[in-house]
Q: What sequence folds into this?
């Protein structure tokens, strides 16, 4: 490994004191549960780190530089290469009222107790003792003066600009990383943000760390953060609308044709009926005429008969 390399690794760490070992940190969630140090707010699993960025204790940084990918190592880190020796000057005495006020800002129902953590002047400390009117606070790191033991393995050395940017987002932000879209073109690195960033106040701080780390450990490039708000889906597309209209028109045309066909059928039936009625009327008329002719013949025949009778009488 070299300084500036980004690695993905896993580890377990113990405090070694008087021949006893006490687990205080691990990337293994099951191991944390077994040893009673599980924290539900911690994201467990392999983590990304930058070697030589002074974000790890000195002893671990040096051991990682000598390590190879895929090999497991067990090392002991002395206090001077870990969190330093305890400094008596960092043990301070404060008034009970001052500490009680600081604690009340965080929790109104809490009171100063030994072992409780407090933050005073941006320094984190632990309450050692509580006496009437006074509280002793130790601002040394909890692991100051402790010898540590680490078991670790480098799983991967991150290669490629896109993968390095993704690893940096994981280190500096650590939320919804898979939903960031990263593209590198020339001197530009474009990062389309995950939706989480739009509503997360911690993103406003994290993005400056991300830009700084990209320039230091990926390349001196332009970094562009892109927020995308997708348009609302339309219920009916423009292509579907004319189709629906055309089908309606076709349906109307079909209805008109059917109506015309029905009217024509009705007209044909009416014509047929009218023809039948006309035939009947004509037959009736003809029968009447013929009857009239017969009656006239009969009437014509009667006077002839009478004439013949009169002639016979005369004779």
A:
């Amino acid at each position: 490994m070299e300084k500036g390399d980004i690695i993905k690794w896993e580890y377990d760490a113990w405090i070694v004191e008087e021949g006893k070992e006490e687990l205080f940190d691990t990337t293994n969630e099951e191991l944390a549960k077994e040893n009673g140090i599980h924290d539900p707010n911690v994201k467990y699993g392999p983590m990304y780190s930058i070697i030589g960025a002074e974000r790890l204790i000195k002893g671990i940084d040096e051991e990682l530089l000598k390590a190879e990918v895929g090999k497991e190592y067990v090392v002991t880190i002395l206090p001077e290469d870990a969190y330093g020796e305890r400094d008596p000057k960092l043990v301070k005495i404060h008034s009970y009222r001052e500490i009680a006020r600081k604690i009340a800002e965080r929790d109104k129902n809490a009171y100063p107790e030994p072992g409780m953590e407090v933050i005073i002047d941006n320094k984190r400390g632990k309450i050692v003792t509580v006496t009437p009117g006074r509280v002793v606070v130790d601002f040394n790191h909890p692991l100051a003066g402790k010898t540590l033991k680490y078991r670790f393995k480098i799983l991967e050395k991150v290669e490629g600009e896109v993968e390095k940017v993704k690893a940096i987002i994981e280190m500096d932000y650590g939320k919804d990383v898979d939903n960031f879209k990263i593209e590198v073109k020339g001197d530009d690195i474009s990062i389309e943000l995950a939706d989480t960033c739009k509503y997360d106040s911690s993103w406003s701080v994290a993005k400056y760390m991300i830009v700084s780390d990209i320039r230091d450990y990926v390349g001196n490039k332009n970094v562009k953060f892109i927020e995308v708000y997708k348009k609302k889906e339309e219920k009916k597309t423009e292509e579907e609308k004319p189709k629906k209209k055309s089908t309606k028109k076709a349906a109307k045309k079909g209805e008109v044709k059917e109506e015309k066909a029905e009217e024509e059928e009705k007209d044909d039936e009416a014509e047929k009926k009218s023809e039948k009625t006309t035939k009947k009327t004509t037959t009736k008329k003809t029968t009447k005429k013929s009857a009239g002719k017969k009656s006239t013949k009969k009437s014509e025949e009667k006077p002839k008969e009478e004439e013949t009778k009169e002639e016979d009488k005369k004779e």
